[in-house]
Design a protein that fits this description.
About 50% of the residues lie in helices and about 15% in strands. By secondary structure, the protein is an alpha/beta fold. The protein has two domains: about 5-170, Rossmann fold, CATH 3.40.50; about 175-270, N-(1-d-carboxylethyl)-l-norvaline Dehydrogenase, domain 2, CATH 1.10.1040. It has a six-stranded parallel beta sheet with strand order 3-2-1-4-5-6, sandwiched between helices. Strands 7-8-9 form a three-stranded mixed beta sheet. The longest helix is centred in the middle third of the chain and has 29 residues, at about 170-200.
Length: about 280
């Protein structure tokens, strides 16, 4: 097997990407980042020892493997393609880890474009939210060549636990299954708790009781983390849920699989966050 990569590029220093990148640079990898829409994450990474360059192409030129952790296909398209895109700088034997949530079709497009340079491409989206990224306990569902994956295992396991899912794109399918359930469940939990508050119970009482009951879930167990998503304005990542459901529904239409609940929640996500009612004064 080829030597394991030690030089890692990281593009996408957002809510989950930044703590992932921290684990890479503090794990002893020579880390290169590119400018972000906010300077703070870049400056933090530089203080930890990362190098900043101007374009994704330069990231690839200085790295053996690059992690892409942007929000959607459109942002990834901008990062990967074009005269200063990552694919202009990759070299034979390099790797690209698509760790954001992208459509399987887009992942295939990237792999096809990189094939002429014999670059390894994997889709490796994550679950576990920011707290999982900080702790290095993310769930990472991976699609791509199983044998080639071993070359990058030490990097991926720095961020979480790997589940190999099959051919390229299957990592995204497995991630979307998780997100469909998580996003829908968060809406259901909100609706139930809002109903309870309107009937005179307190939020604290309801959440505490549900954590020990059959109504528990990731959303309920991490309610304090989730609550900001039910406020105006919500975190920018609130709308990522609608994007993920849109990807899932597009595939559902292609394969003829009814997903009426996902379709309803997707439309609700587009309308913005609901708001928990004020406690009853009676």
């Amino acid at each position: 097997m080829a030597d394991k990569p030690k030089r890692v590029g990281f593009i996408g220093l957002g809510d989950i990407g930044l703590p992932m990148a921290r684990r890479i640079v503090t794990g002893g990898f020579e880390t290169t980042v590119v400018g972000h829409r906010r300077r703070e994450p870049v400056e933090e990474m530089k203080k930890l020892g990362a190098k900043e360059v101007e374009t994704p192409k330069e990231v690839a030129l200085t790295s053996e493997v690059t992690i892409i952790m942007v929000q959607n296909d459109k942002q990834a398209q901008e990062v990967l393609f074009g005269p200063t895109g990552l694919l202009e700088g990759v070299k034979e034997g390099d790797g690209v880890l698509l760790m954001g949530t992208f459509s399987p079709a887009f992942c295939s497009k990237v792999a096809e474009a990189a094939s002429s340079k014999r670059v390894d491409v994997f889709d490796a989206p994550v679950v576990g939210a920011r707290m999982g990224a900080e702790a290095g306990t993310l769930g990472i569902s991976i699609g791509g060549d199983k044998e080639a994956l071993e070359k990058y295992r030490h990097i991926l396991e720095r961020m979480g636990r790997i589940t190999y899912c099959g051919h390229l794109g299957m990592g995204q399918i497995v991630k979307l299954v998780n997100n469909m359930a998580a996003i829908i469940n968060a809406r259901v939990a909100y609706e139930a708790i809002a109903w309870g508050i309107r009937n005179g119970a307190t939020e604290e009482l309801l959440v505490g009781h549900m954590k020990n009951g059959s109504g528990s879930s990731f959303a309920v167990q991490n309610w304090e983390w989730l609550k900001p998503y039910f406020k105006e304005p919500p975190p920018p990542t609130y709308y990522v849920g609608g994007k993920d459901l849109s990807y899932a529904l597009e595939i559902a239409h292609q394969i003829g699989q009814p997903c009426p609940i996902a379709a309803l929640v997707c439309e609700l996500q587009k309308m913005g966050p609901p708001k928990l009612p004020e406690p009853s004064q009676e």
